[in-house]
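Translate structure to sequence.
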């Protein structure tokens, strides 16, 4: 107000406009802060998290939280068209954009189809690149479902959020070049940093 010679109402109006544009955020009891960068993905084609983050000019990162072979639970077996209890490789990762955690995800893949996959260091290589280079398997399409969720204590700690904060649950079934399901992935995405959009066209 002093520097530009404007009224308090003008300043409040300007701040409200910046909040509406997503450039500022108001934290109750703390004040007004510059918003963290948001990422937007347009649904409509096959995509890779790492390449999406690179497209935004940031360095993608991965922290492997767990990697092991275990019996397929009922929902995993159904998604992968397997018998319940069939061995699957379960890969749980924390996905980052620069230093910021964005997604916690767990991928399940048929162990018989990808022998030795549980020995790969996925903090340094990409899953889909590994499937293609080591196993000749190329994911060509995927089916995804989205649902709103509240973060659990474990998810909140990993994503630098508070328990109960809103997030997005994404479940993906990926298919190979022969249209066989090869991956069932369940992701929890930070609601304050990532959003999906859909482009609709008149047929």
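Result:
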């Amino acid at each position: 107000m002093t520097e530009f010679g404007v009224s308090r109402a003008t300043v409040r109006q300007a701040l409200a406009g910046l909040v509406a544009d997503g450039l500022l955020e108001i934290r109750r009891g703390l004040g007004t802060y510059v918003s963290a960068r948001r990422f937007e993905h347009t649904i409509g084609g096959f995509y890779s998290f790492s390449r999406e983050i690179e497209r935004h000019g940031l360095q993608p990162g991965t922290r492997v939280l767990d990697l092991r072979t275990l019996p397929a639970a009922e929902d995993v077996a159904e998604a992968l068209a397997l018998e319940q209890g069939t061995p699957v490789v379960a890969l749980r990762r924390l996905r980052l954009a620069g230093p910021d955690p964005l997604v916690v995800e767990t991928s399940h893949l048929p162990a018989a189809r990808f022998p030795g996959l549980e020995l790969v260091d996925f903090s340094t290589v990409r899953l889909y690149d590994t499937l293609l280079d080591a196993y000749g398997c190329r994911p060509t399409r995927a089916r995804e479902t989205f649902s709103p969720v509240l973060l659990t204590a474990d998810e909140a700690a990993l994503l630098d959020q508070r328990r109960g904060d809103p997030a997005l649950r994404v479940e993906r079934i990926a298919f190979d070049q022969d249209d066989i399901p090869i991956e069932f992935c369940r992701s929890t995405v930070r609601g304050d940093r990532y959003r999906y959009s859909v482009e609709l066209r008149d047929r």
